Amino acid sequence: MQVLVYGAGQLAQMMYLDGAALGIDVQAVDVSNNTVVHPVSKQPLDCSLEQAIERADVLTVEFEHVPEALLETAEQSGKLHPNKDAILVGADRVREKALLERLNIPNCAHRIVTDLTQLDECVEALGERLIIKASRDGYDGYGQWRLSQKADLPALKKQLEGLDLVRVPLVVEQMLKFDREVSLIGARNVSGDIKVYPLAENLHYQGQLHVSVAPATNSDDALTAKALEIFSKLVEGMDYVGVLAVELFQCGDTLLVNELAPRVHNSGHWTQAGADTSQFENHLRAVLDLPLGDTTNIGGDAAVSAMVNIIGCDDHDLALLGLPGVHFNWYGKTVRNKRKMGHINVTASGYKALGSKLEQLSGYLSADHFPELVDEAARLQ
Ligand code: ATP
Ligand code: MG
Ligand code: MG
């Protein structure tokens, strides 16, 4: 079986690694030059994109910002999962908000802005604490601006002056005071079977995911049921096939959808070590219409996992491999500020043990690059 992934980053690499065990050959498309490459070495393979599309059983994506013309060709082959519209929902916040409204799924109060003069109405309607997001091409908090008081509005408008808002509108959201961020990752296969992982609790720092813990602490059955209801509405509503990640804000017992990722997701990396079947394998199973694998944590009801991102550095001490339950993943990229370089998965028999393992792990990592790890370790203990 052959799967062609648009995008040749770490997510395609991890699909490749899990696919190999099932006899699934994963190839990747570098969308910057339309070449077909090996997902690990990134070396060009000896075939054109057209040939690779022809040979593949399924086409899929590892990120949503694939040029629309490429998606169109992929869709026309009849082999693309998830479908083009679902991918575009993840790539465009205007479409995303429209979908959430259509399906009646709670999300942040917002306005769509195509002209800077509309920002005054936004402040009137939503209040003066706002988060302003470019509707396309943003990730890891890039393409976002914040307003904390009305007096700063003229300065903000100046900053936004050069943007072509007719082509790429802004989505202006009320700045929420949520209790925490969680995400639900699940899969739906071609036959329509659905499986979801336990909710993950996500710790962000400067707009970027740093640590995930799964299952989320204090997640009762009612919260899990709410998340599942949102997930089911979304996948049915989009006729979605593959892994879908839903980023959520929790306010009391309410869940609001922040955004959708039509793909495997950073907050699901813990599943490689902590779940019976990883999100990468389940994505491949879903798009190839194979039975979905078990999504529960390995090691019984109390078992828990964490994922720690290695961001903008490579000065870790590999002696950390000696810690039990610690698994290291490296993407082979050149170091850049704020770039995701790799991640570490940690499994434990309970939250207290997980906290203690994270504390030990922090001894092998430079505190500068892992600003919240020690606090997170202490919180869990
Ligand atoms: P990602 O890398 O997850 O794709 P992104 O750049 O697409 O990130 P968002 O997920 O929309 O951006 O926002 C990044 C982070 O900013 C969120 O995880 C959250 O911490 C914060 N944030 C976003 N929207 C709001 C909001 N309305 N109120 C409060 N905080 C918010
Ligand atoms: Mg995003
Ligand atoms: Mg996000």
CATH topology of the largest domain: D-amino Acid Aminotransferase, Chain A, domain 1
Q: Separation of termini?
A: 45 Å
> Number of helical segments?
12
Mean pLDDT: 97
Text of the CATH class of the largest domain: Alpha Beta
What about the largest sheet?
9 strands, antiparallel
Strand content: 25-35%
Bound molecules: adenosine-5'-triphosphate, magnesium ion
Integer tally of domains: 3
The structure class reads alpha+beta
Radius of gyration: 21 Å
Q: Which runs of at least 5 residues are low in confidence (pLDDT < 50)? A: none
Number of strands: 17
The CATH superfamily name of the largest domain is: ATP-grasp fold, B domain
State the helical fraction. Answer: 25-40%
From the spread of the alpha carbons, the general shape counts as globular
Order of helices and strands: EHEEHEHHHEHEEHEEEEEHEEHHEEEHH
Second CATH tier, the architecture of the largest domain: 2-Layer Sandwich
Show the helix and strand layout.
Blueprint: E1 2-6, H1 10-21, E2 25-30, E3 35-37, H2 49-55, E4 58-61, H3 68-76, H4 84-91, H5 93-102, E5 110-113, H6 118-126, E6 130-134, E7 144-147, H7 153-160, E8 170-174, E9 180-188, E10 194-196, E11 200-205, E12 208-214, H8 221-238, E13 242-251, E14 254-261, H9 271-274, H10 279-287, E15 304-311, E16 326-330, E17 340-348, H11 351-362, H12 373-380
Parallel strand pairs: 1-2, 1-4
Antiparallel strand pairs: 2-3, 5-8, 6-7, 6-8, 9-10, 9-11, 9-13, 11-12, 12-15, 13-14, 15-17, 16-17
Helix pairs in contact: 1-10, 4-5, 11-12
The site of one magnesium ion has 2 residues, from loops.
